[in-house]
From TrEMBL, chain A:
Keyword DNA-binding applies: yes
Keyword NADP in record: no
Region span, Disordered: 220-239, 324-406
Residue ranges constituting the BAH domain according to the UniProt record: 46-169
InterPro entries given in the database record: AAA+_ATPase, ATPase_AAA_core, BAH_dom, BAH_sf, Cdc6_C, Cdc6_ORC1-like_ATPase_lid, ORC1/CDC6, P-loop_NTPase
Functional summary from the UniProt entry: Component of the origin recognition complex (ORC) that binds origins of replication. DNA-binding is ATP-dependent, however specific DNA sequences that define origins of replication have not been identified so far. ORC is required to assemble the pre-replication complex necessary to initiate DNA replication.
MF (Gene Ontology): ATP binding; ATP hydrolysis activity; chromatin binding; DNA replication origin binding; metal ion binding
Subunit text: ORC is composed of six subunits.
SMART domains: AAA, BAH, Cdc6_C
A single cellular component GO annotation: nuclear origin of replication recognition complex
Composition skew (Low complexity), residue ranges: 325-335
The name this protein goes by in its record: Origin recognition complex subunit 1
TrEMBL record, chain B:
Protein name: Origin recognition complex subunit 4
Keywords: ATP-binding, DNA replication, DNA-binding, Nucleotide-binding, Nucleus
Ranges that cross the membrane: none
Compartmental location: Nucleus
Top-level taxon of origin: Eukaryota
One GO BP: DNA replication initiation
Keyword Nucleus in annotation: yes
Cellular-component GO terms for this entry: cytoplasm; nuclear origin of replication recognition complex
GO MF term list: ATP binding; DNA replication origin binding
């Protein structure tokens, strides 16, 4: 965790190790045998050579990928590339395939990846650090180790369809790679002397990590090859002797040594912590270990040894109190002032950090939809914050929902817009087009955009979802490569820039600010790299993502055009000419010309939709369905409207037949429902208005006729009103009455009125046609 | 003995009266869902069925209740909810969220309020923290997780619904309607509004997602029913402690409802507006007159209340003006007559006033110009006169163009009622040429 975090913040320089080993004139590439990763902040340098195993940055910073370096080269554009052999973690394997294993898989186990879909050419910048991958025979138990983040085991290979045991060829190659890289058997011998020799050289730089400079490298190699130095030989023989005595402890010790060999490149302070944490679990073989430790003690300069033991002490204290340790306690306190404070406090801090980190990692679900909260955001003490791990949930109901009892209720349930039909009728062509588009992109492993338009309620989103569902089904059956599906909706964002945040959260579970999310996503989609599945992104209500600079749209449509993005975007909006109307040329150009428009449904299609939804439920007369379809098709072709009318018609039908006689929806019910939804409410509003309100409307008409202008002030209308009242022999209202009548009519929008502070001089207009008013007033 | 008896009766009477006041005032002020609904039985049934289906079957819906102010939209909804809550299955299964367009003026506030009322897990105490985006994502996630059969249905009641339409992008409405049209937590969105053109205000995607159920509440009752409502609102309930007094009171109310004057008062109010709230207001004024010595409402009480209620507010202000101010108003009236409603300025008014003074110097004291200006500014403050443009630094006060906010009829009526008005002024008011 600590390492990865700092990666994001500090600059890291990648440089080649050594001279190019070979070059290709034609491709203008230069090949190298190793790479040096130099971190500016911690000022450490690490060298990783071909054949070594590395962690590769993935889209989720908490879940790096494991790979083996096969080739390192620089292309013509001076970009550093690496060719890798991937290893898959269990979380990368689709849920439904995991059961093929028929066993529990520890988080340390990885699978030799033989899936063809992944790009194995990555940018060198995505390499995090080296790790160890140890091949095991299928029957072998996983050895128990502590350093779960740095050691992986491989037993089987995974080719996207099934798991196989490692072929003997691969097995030996992997074994070989381990020997070559860190040299498991040799490390024990080389580790201690190396550390000590380097320490002796730089005793002043206590807090600094071990620098693996070139001459050190040479030193290692000499020792590796010879392993005849008297020191290492002595160590070796001692270990062997120990191992013979207690065979159970020996295995662990070997692991330990191997493990120390790995952490040695990462620096001294780190290694001390690792050693201490390792020791914590080593209760059974404690004495043996301590014995070997005491040897270590002899070789290390006092100050370092003290800090080592300080951290060890923390771990062991509770279990075992040995004289040896208590005596070192005193020496520790005496020399503590000399220590760099960083070293002193780091072990404890780090244990905490690693603990908090490991818990969510093991419990993290692979599903991208669960909004996992990253543990790195800690709330400030004192200020109440939103509970971090609040689960968004609506309380459950205490009584179960009732099942539909009658046929009409059943029909109503099926006709609800939310009911997912078995199939989507009338959109077969569009479905096929979208399906083919996405499928081809998936198979090619490329990216692309498609723009889908159509008026509301024509099944755009439903069709796209259906396509995704079918593709997911196909992916499960291994017909198409597996892909990741995410969806954003412009209307469900508070701000266009929130799109980045949502996409990143859906992809990786990280929660960051919009600007940060944008950079992370750009990095994710634009750098060649880390093995990723193709992402299918649905952007619903695209027009809402419009900003003045259009950078959100620009980025969204730019990513798929990047070589390595593997991003397929399906953009949905209402208007057909959206790209021409609101997008700048550079955005519209990137959107491309793959467009599709959904035509409003015709009445036949609507009829088919209703019938297919009703399926076998005979709740509607055939003519009734046709009436609804024709009516809606003539108005808008909105399927939602159509279904709503049908639903309302079933209710009306139910009202009408109270006597439990099963009835089906007839023309009359449908007509009533249509009238209810489409009738103009103004006429009835005028008819139900009070007498003076009606006279006021008449006065307005009279004033309009008098002035010849369709606008009048209240004062003018007032005079007309009074004369009308006189004609009918009624008491004339006061100006206050008239004002309130006017504002009441204005509130229901029968009238359009100005702001009321002009009082008598406020201008009034009718919001409906004069004919409608006359018609409404005449009948009475 | 008899003295004590009368005292006792007065004390019990006093208690009775305060009881009456309490019962009736509560009824008239809070619009409790008491009594019957008038003319909206059909709407009542529609809404009741709708909400029943939401709670019992978990069916999502959306509906608008549309009707003019005071037509009983909220009363209808409260009535339905009260009756619904009597069903045990409903009571335990319904979450209610009430929003008001006047309080939740933007989506950010509205979202926090929804989250608070739903008591989701990101509510700390009574507060909701986090950004707008976080809250929206959280709420949508919460609602998406639910499904028809197992989640508790949520009833959203949006009062002053038309104000939500003006929120940016109509995000809240889109999301609420979208949830009501998709297989998520069952929700029912009920909007209350008085605007009839509400559907035209929806954005097209929002409109498509709205189910187009509109329940119209119109005051469709006639005068007979109006009188019945009057009777019902004023009658004491059967569980009133003092039965004999209740009997007496109710008899009196029955008597009032057939009284000619009362009918006239009601008729005039009914013609003016069918809004039940104004009837309540009228009754409230009348009920406030009830005291121990005047235990029953009389027809004159109602008449008085009606007079008080339907007073012309601007003309009323004129009654309290000084003679000088009245003179200025009359001058303005003449200017209006001469120039046909064109705006005037102080100088013109002053000149007109001077003309009058010169003719009838004996009856009016000739005020200095600054004094007249002061009087004019008082009229300005009372908003009887209104400048047609904002006063700027450059234009002098005397030449600022003004308009009179009184009608001629109002001025003449006010003058009739004005006490101790000099005859010359009255004459001048009727005609600017009276001296000829």
């Amino acid at each position: 965790m600590g390492i990865m975090n700092t990666r994001q913040q500090t600059k890291i320089i990648y440089s080649w190790y050594g001279k190019p080993t070979s070059s290709d004139r034609k491709l203008r590439t230069l090949q190298y045998k190793g790479i040096i990763i130099k971190s500016e902040r911690t000022r450490t340098e690490k060298c990783i050579q071909l054949g070594e195993f590395v962690l590769i940055e993935g889209e989720n910073a908490d879940r790096p990928f494991v790979a083996q370096l096969l080739d390192l080269y620089e292309d013509g554009a001076q970009q550093k590339h690496a060719v890798v052999q991937w290893f898959s973690h269990i979380t990368e394997i689709p849920q439904n395939k995991r059961k093929l294993l028929k066993r529990e898989v520890s988080c340390q186990e990885v699978f030799f990846d033989q899936v063809s879909g992944y790009d194995n050419d990555i940018a060198v910048e995505t390499i995090i650090e080296s790790v160890l991958v140890i091949p095991l025979h299928p029957k072998e138990e996983l050895p128990i180790t502590l350093n779960k983040e740095k050691i992986f085991y491989v037993k089987q290979s995974w080719d996207g369809k099934c798991f196989k045991a490692l072929s003997s060829d691969t097995f030996s190659k992997l074994k070989e790679a381990n020997r070559k890289g860190d040299g498991v058997p040799n490390s024990l011998n080389s580790f201690v002397p190396l550390d000590i020799s380097s320490m002796k050289e730089e005793t002043k730089k206590v807090a600094r990590s071990v620098m693996k400079t070139k001459n050190v490298e040479v030193e290692i190699e000499s020792k590796h090859s010879a392993s005849k130095s008297s020191l290492s030989k002595e160590r070796h023989s001692q270990r062997v002797a120990n191992g013979i005595k207690t065979p159970t402890a020996r295995k662990k010790l070997q692991l330990n040594s191997m493990y120390m060999a790995i952490f040695c490149p990462f620096g001294f302070e780190c290694s001390m912590f690792r050693a201490s944490s390792f020791l914590g679990s080593l209760n059974s073989g404690n004495t043996v270990f301590l014995a070997s430790l005491s040897k270590l003690w002899d070789y290390l300069p006092k100050t370092h040894a003290i800090s080592v033991f300080y951290s060890l002490l923390n771990m062991i204290e509770s279990n075992q109190k040995e004289d040896f340790l208590s005596s070192s306690d005193g020496s520790y306190s005496s020399s503590s002032e000399e220590e760099d404070s960083d070293v002193l406090c780091s072990p404890e801090k780090r244990t905490k950090a690693s603990r908090t980190f490991s818990i969510p990692k093991s419990s993290r679900k692979p599903s991208v939809h669960t909004p996992a909260k990253t543990p790195k955001k800690t709330s400030l003490p004192g200020t109440p914050k939103t509970p971090r791990n609040a689960t968004p949930e609506i309380p459950r109901r205490s009584h179960a929902a009732q099942k539909p009892a009658s046929m009409l209720e059943e029909a109503r349930l099926r006709l609800h817009v939310s009911a997912i039909p078995e199939s989507l009728p009338c959109r077969e062509e569009e479905f096929q087009d979208i399906y083919n588009f996405v499928e081809s992109k998936l198979i090619d492993g490329t990216g692309g955009c498609m723009y889908i338009s159509g008026v509301p309620g024509t099944g755009k989103t439903a069709t796209v979802h259906e396509v995704i569902r079918c593709l997911q089904q196909a992916a499960e059956n291994d017909d198409v490569p597996a892909f990741e599906f995410i969806e954003i909706n412009g209307m469900k964002l508070t701000d266009p820039h929130q799109a980045y945040v949502q996409i990143l959260e859906l992809l990786t579970g990280q929660k960051v600010t919009a600007t940060h999310a944008a950079t992370l996503l750009a990095k994710l989609f634009c750098t060649p790299g880390p093995k990723r599945k193709t992402t299918v992104l649905i952007v619903d209500e695209l027009d809402l993502l419009w900003t003045r600079k259009q950078n959100v749209m620009y980025n969204l449509f730019d990513w798929p055009t990047q070589k390595h993005s593997k991003l397929i975007i399906l953009a949905i909006a209402n208007t057909m000419d959206l790209p021409e109307r609101i997008m700048m040329n550079r955005v519209a150009s990137r959107l491309g010309l793959t467009r599709m428009s959904f035509q409003p449904y015709t009445y036949k299609q609507l009829q088919q939709i209703i019938s297919s939804r009703l399926n076998s439920v005979k709740a509607f007369e055939e003519d009734a369905i046709q009436l609804v379809s024709r009516k809606v098709a003539a108005l808008s072709g909105d399927a939602r409207r159509c279904l709503d009318i049908c639903r309302r018609a079933t209710e009306i039908c139910e009202f009408a037949s109270q006597k439990n006689i099963p009835e089906i929806v007839r023309m009359a019910h449908v007509t009533e429902a249509i009238d209810e939804m489409f009738s103009s409410p103004y006429i009835s509003a005028i008819r139900n208005a009070s007498l003076h309100e009606q006279i006021f409307l008449k006065a307005i008409l009279a004033e309009f006729r008098r002035a010849g202008v369709e606008e009048a002030t209240v004062q003018q209308v007032y005079h007309q009103h009074i004369s009308l009242c006189r004609m009918e022999g009624m008491q004339s209202p006061t100006v206050s009455d008239i004002m309130s009548i006017c504002s009441r009519l204005g509130a229901c929008r029968l009238l359009l009125v100005e702001s009321s502070n002009k009082y008598l001089h406020m201008r009034v207009r009718l919001n409906i046609s004069q004919d409608d008013v006359m018609y409404a007033l005449k009948d009475e | 003995m008899s003295k004590r008896k009368s005292k006792e009766s007065i004390s019990t009477n006093g208690e009775c009266i305060s009881q009456v006041q309490k019962v009736l005032r509560e009824r008239l002020c809070y619009h409790y869902a008491t009594g019957k609904l008038f003319g909206i039985e059909h709407q009542y049934r529609h809404l009741l069925e709708l909400l029943k289906r939401t709670t019992i079957h978990g069916e999502s819906n959306s509906a608008l209740i549309i009707g003019p102010r005071g037509s009983g939209k909220t009363a209808l909804l409260n009535h339905v909810l009260k009756d619904l809550m009597e069903i045990k299955q409903v009571k335990e299964n319904l979450l209610e969220v009430r929003l008001n367009g006047l309080l939740q003026t933007n989506d950010k506030v509205a979202l926090k309020e929804i989250t608070r009322q739903l008591r989701l897990e990101n509510v700390v105490g009574d507060k909701v923290f986090g950004s707008f985006a976080e809250n929206l994502a959280f709420l949508l996630e919460a609602l998406r997780k639910g499904n028809r059969t197992s989640s508790c249905p949520v009833l959203f009641i949006l009062d002053e619904f038309d104000l939500f339409v003006h929120h940016k992008n109509q995000t809240l409405l889109y999301n609420l309607f979208d949830i009501s049209q998709s297989a998520q937590t069952p929700v029912t969105v009920i909007g209350l509004t008085c605007r009839r053109d509400i559907l035209e205000l929806f954005e097209k995607r929002v409109k498509s997602r709205f189910s187009h159920r509109q329940i119209y509440v119109l005051n469709s009752f006639d005068f007979k029913q109006y009188v019945k409502i009057f009777k019902e609102q004023l009658s004491l309930p059967a569980d009133f402690p003092d039965e004999t007094f209740a009997q007496k009171w109710n008899n009196n109310v029955q008597h009032l409802s057939v009284d000619k004057t009362v009918n006239d008062v009601l008729q005039s109010l009914f013609h003016y507006t069918k809004d039940l709230r104004s009837l309540h207001f009228l009754l409230m004024l009348a009920v406030s007159n009830v005291t121990v010595h005047h235990p029953l409402i009389t027809a004159s009480d109602l008449q008085e209340a009606s007079k008080q209620y339907r007073m012309d507010s601007k003309a009323n202000i004129v009654h309290g003006l000084s003679v000088l101010e009245i003179c200025l108003i009359i001058a303005m009236k003449h200017l209006n007559d001469v120039y046909e409603g064109e705006p005037f300025n102080f100088q013109m008014v002053y000149n007109e006033f001077q003309k009058f003074i010169q003719r009838k110097a004996h009856c009016m004291y000739n005020f200095e110009k600054p004094v007249v200006m002061k009087a004019f500014e008082h009229l300005l403050q009372l908003e009887l006169v209104k400048p047609i443009e904002k006063p700027s630094v450059r234009t002098q006060r005397e030449y600022l163009l003004m308009k009179l906010l009184l009608d001629n009829t109002q001025i003449m009526d006010a003058l009739q009622a004005y006490p101790n008005c000099p005859t010359d002024v009255k004459q001048w008011a009727t005609s600017s040429l009276s001296w000829l």
